[in-house]
TrEMBL record, chain A:
Record keyword ATP-binding present: yes
Gene3D superfamilies: P-loop containing nucleotide triphosphate hydrolases
Domain of life: Bacteria
Oxidoreductase found in the keyword field: no
Any Pfam family matching the protein: ABC_tran
Name the record gives this protein: Zinc ABC transporter ATP-binding protein
Keyword list, A-Z: ATP-binding, Nucleotide-binding, Transport
InterPro entries: AAA+_ATPase (IPR003593), ABC_transporter-like_ATP-bd (IPR003439), ABC_transporter-like_CS (IPR017871), Metal_Ion_Import_ABC (IPR050153), P-loop_NTPase (IPR027417)
Organismal lineage: Bacteria, Bacillati, Bacillota, Bacilli, Bacillales
From TrEMBL, chain B:
Protein name (record): Metal ABC transporter permease
Cell compartment(s), UniProt: Cell membrane; Membrane
A GO CC term attached to the entry: ATP-binding cassette (ABC) transporter complex
Taxonomic source organism: Planococcus halotolerans
Keyword field contains Membrane: yes
GO biological process: response to zinc ion; transmembrane transport
Record-annotated membrane-spanning stretches: 14-34, 64-86, 98-121, 141-165, 230-249, 255-271
PANTHER family: ABC-TRANSPORTER METAL-BINDING PROTEIN, METAL ABC TRANSPORTER PERMEASE
Gene3D superfamilies in UniProt: ABC transporter involved in vitamin B12 uptake, BtuC
Lipid bilayer topology: Multi-pass membrane protein
Pfam families, alphabetized: ABC-3
Similarity field: Belongs to the ABC-3 integral membrane protein family.
UniProtKB keywords: Membrane, Transmembrane, Transmembrane helix, Transport
The keyword Protein biosynthesis belongs to this UniProt entry's keyword annotation: no
């Protein structure tokens, strides 16, 4: 059997004063479509950033594709779509094509040019998010939802084995959220891309996912969607209540 | 003008250096502007001033320095300043921009002290502050050529990484690009361009040549590559027109170059405005 694509053991993380993650262990297996649920401030983005190696846990270990994260050399296998608007610099003078081609930079390697097939690769990635008509548009002219699709295309262009998405539907209008999740489900099914996604759209997404993790500093539940659906409302509420108190506590100083 | 260039060595130096700077300053400037680092360029130019003033002061008392081109100490100060800015930015994580006024004031502070200590180079000083057509030596030109080679090599070799990093630095890190190193090298290269451009445009106006042509280009270009091309064209046009008028009217080239670039910017803004209303009219 293949090694899990992500294997996290006993991870904790704290920002200067705030404890964000407490002793978390979890695995993501090949082919999973995992939704990470949890209230605001429960550490979801932090957990994704740890998976991506953007921040280092204070304790615990991470393996990616069976390799210790420190020695993992194939970041291009993991596509990342960050929580909207925090890092991308709006108003940037670039075409959609240029932005998506940037997704090939790591795969091409330092000191090397982008591959000759860059145009076809970009077109294919843009087709899979239904945005091929926008290739020559300026990125800053697109709506939030369109930009989000472009960022998914940028993550897809290097043909990753796994996608990590942080609240990808924020900024996408209600009617289009369904279509958006259909697109992700198709990537999971047809291209066998493993998906790890933070989301708040529990009801919309349950038809399409395979696994659920409920996070609030610690993992309260991680398992098949079917198990998750058998949980009682009280059980789910108990984590949420817990979380609400936590948030209240942590947010008191702000 | 052409005759004059063949007749006078100093004009060859000034035009040679100017033509090169007209390319590399706006080229690097594109990355500076989109990464919102324009003020860092300003801070570094003032640090360069401190280095140059220090060198001019030392040259009056220490023999080694009298033979040394003050540009070298200027480059050293600028590179040192860029490293310091990075240190301060990580120290003040939530107030990254605080690094800029700290370094900028340090530059002016030391600069002022050295200038007052070393009396009697007000002529030189004027050239360093606002640029000079006549003071560019063959050695200055060679330094500029060397800097240009380093800068062009850096940008050509790391273009795709620089683009990704400039667009979205978190994504750059997440995709495993050596973002930290590239940023560090970028800061050093910026320091080099600033020190190199200083002879022609002057310390006070270096950052303008890195930002104004880019500001104009960004209004009219759709793609990143086009932004680069137009920035270089606008920068080069400003340098050429600025140097020629500085020579004929005996003005400081920093002033004429920057004013030309501002005029170009205005033309672009007006053009854009007309283009937009024509388009609207066509639709309506
Ligand atoms: N850069 C940061 N510095 C300090 N605290 C942070 C930072 N990012 C997040 N936090 C805190 O860590 C906790 C978890 O944040 P985050 O992982 O972003 O939560 P989520 O994505 O679930 O909303 C919150 O209490 C938040 O305030
Ligand atoms: Mg989040």
């Amino acid at each position: 059997m293949d090694a899990p694509l992500i294997e996290i053991k006993d991870i904790s993380f704290e920002y200067e004063e705030t404890k964000a993650l407490d002793n978390i262990s979890m695995k993501v297996e090949k082919g999973d479509f995992l939704a990470i649920l949890g209230p605001n401030g429960s550490g979801k983005s932090t957990l994704l950033k740890i998976m991506l190696g953007l921040i280092k846990p204070s304790k615990g270990s991470i393996k990616l594709f069976g390799v210790d994260s420190k020695n993992f050399k194939h970041r291009e296998w993991i596509g990342y779509v960050s929580q909207k608007s925090n890092s991308f610099n709006s108003g940037f003078p670039a075409t959609v094509k240029e932005v998506v081609a940037g997704g090939l930079a790591k795969k091409a390697g330092l000191f090397r040019r982008l591959p000759k097939t860059v145009d076809e690769d970009v077109l294919e990635a843009m087709k899979s998010v239904g945005m091929e008509a926008f290739l020559d548009r300026s990125i800053s002219e697109l709506s939030g939802g369109q930009q989000q699709r472009v960022f998914i295309a940028r993550a897809l262009v290097a043909k990753p084995k796994m996608l990590i998405l942080d609240e990808p539907t924020v900024g996408i209008d209600h009617q289009n959220v369904q279509a958006f999740y259909d697109m992700l489900a198709a990537l999971n099914r047809e291209k066998n891309i493993t998906l790890v996604m933070v989301t708040h759209d529990v009801d919309t997404v349950t038809d399409r996912i395979s696994h659920v993790a409920c996070l609030n500093q610690t993992i309260h539940f991680h398992g098949f969607k079917e198990q998750f659906q058998t949980l009682s409302d009280e059980e789910r509420a108990s984590w949420y209540g817990h979380s609400v108190r936590k948030i209240h506590h942590a947010g008191g100083g702000h | 003008m052409i005759d004059a260039i063949f007749t006078y060595d100093f004009l060859q130096n000034a035009f040679g250096a100017g033509l090169i700077i007209g390319v590399i300053a706006p080229l690097l400037g594109v990355f500076i502007v989109v990464r919102r680092l324009s003020l860092i360029a300003d801070a570094l130019s003032h640090v360069t001033l401190a280095g140059i003033a220090g060198s001019l002061y030392l040259s009056q008392s220490v023999a080694v320095f009298s033979a040394l081109n003050p540009l070298f100490l200027g480059i050293a100060a600028s590179v040192g300043g860029s490293v310091l800015i990075e240190r301060l930015r990580t120290l003040y994580k939530h107030y990254e921009e605080l690094a800029i006024p700290i370094i900028l004031s340090a530059g002016i502070g030391f600069g002022a002290i050295f200038i007052s200590l070393a009396q009697g180079f007000s002529n030189d000083l004027f050239g360093y502050l606002f640029g000079s057509v006549s003071a560019v030596s063959r050695e200055d030109l060679l330094i500029v050529v060397a800097i240009a080679i380093v800068v062009l090599a850096f940008i050509v070799v790391f273009f795709k990484e620089l683009f990704v990093l400039s667009f979205d630095d978190e994504y750059a890190k997440a995709s495993g690009l050596p973002a930290k190193w590239i940023h560090f090298m970028f800061m050093i290269v910026t320091a080099l361009v600033i020190a190199g451009s200083m002879r022609i445009v002057g310390i006070l106006l270096v950052s303008s040549l890195m930002t104004i042509p880019v500001a104009a280009a960004m209004r009219v270009s759709k793609s990143f590559k086009q932004t680069i091309t137009l920035s270089i064209i606008f920068g080069e046009a400003s340098v050429i027109a600025g140097l020629i008028s500085a020579f004929y009217f005996d003005l400081a080239p920093g002033g004429t170059i920057v004013v030309t670039s501002i005029l170009l910017l205005l033309l672009v803004l007006i053009y854009k405005k007309i283009a937009v209303s024509v388009k609207r009219g066509a639709i309506a």
